[in-house]
From TrEMBL:
Family matches, as NCBIfam families: L-threonylcarbamoyladenylate synthase (TIGR00057)
Organism: Sediminicola arcticus
InterPro entries recorded: DHBP_synth_RibB-like_a/b_dom, Sua5-like_dom, Sua5/YwlC_C, Sua5_C, T(6)A37_SUA5, TC-AMP_synthase_SUA5
Principal location listed in the UniProt entry: cytoplasm
Domain YrdC-like: start-end pairs: 5-191
EC number of the protein: 2.7.7.87
Spans traversing the lipid bilayer: none
Name used for this protein in its record: Threonylcarbamoyl-AMP synthase
Amino acid sequence: MTIISNDIGRAVEILNNEDVVAIPTETVYGLAGNIYSDKAIRKIFEVKQRPLFNPLIVHLHSIEQLDEIASEFPIKAQLLADAFWPGSLTLILKKKSNIPDVITAGKDTVAVRIPNHPITLKLLKELSFPLAAPSANPFNRISPTNSLHVESYFKNSIKMVLEGGECKNGLESTIIGFENNEPVLYRLGAIAIEEIENVIGKIKVKNKKEKAPDAPGMLAKHYAPKTKTYLVNDIKKFIKSNGDKTIGVVSFTENMNASNIKHVEILSKSGDLKEAASKLYSALHTLDDLNLDMIVAQRFPDVGLGKSINDRLERATK
Ligand code: TXA
Ligand code: MG
């Protein structure tokens, strides 16, 4: 049985024992293990059924810990860290040689972030090692934004989910790396591009949808519900032309009625993209559990977190 508990001491014990624990963060729940334990890290890949070519993010409690992990800290990375850590920003930096290859998939860079969740920060402070933690979902499934999502994915294959409530941001971190000293955004996420650009100026975006991403692993199909999902420009037309299907709707602000619509998840009545982003995955989890023929979402405004939401919905439709 998987225990769901806020007992940090118990989580410390399990992690010290080279086992894994699901942890809350402000983005999504992660499946965490000691970065230096081959046993724990292999278990993460095994439980998630994640291919070994996809590297993990290292989670720290403070910027001082970065010395142990990264060999370079470019000035623009420092500016971003100052602005957003603890928070939903992951930086790809040159790694130190003590970082095991299994964490970085053999690359010479390592992904790091300081999450902004009080329970996980406390946990990290009580450990003598950083935690590697990918999102706590099986490969290609929707990321979990509460402890029950994690439990229903992994049932008995993990000992504990550290309870931390609903994830405030609800989308994975924004990932930024450096190529020839220039910053590159590899994954749209919980921090909008505009916010990043306010700090370091214009940034190149390589948020690709590759089949086998060479590094900044962004697989085309990702975050996918089991139910066939569509992202459309004209939702009313889509609903009319699928009269014989049972449909679940992801709507930004408004309710919708039609005989074939079985359920509507409204993400933000007031039209707030941050609130919508925080509810997206939870809405997809809910709709996916209803055994409908299809899930449909109307494309979100292409600004701020609307870009990140559209990105995830596009990946959900593949
Ligand atoms: O919000 C988040 O980032 C969550 C929470 C748990 O912190 N974690 C998360 O991890 O989303 P994961 O494993 O699902 O996504 C990590 C992404 C992958 O796309 C991976 O390919 C990329 O980070 N990544 C990790 N190390 C990298 C590296 N050295 N170079 C390029 N991309 C890297
Ligand atoms: Mg993931």
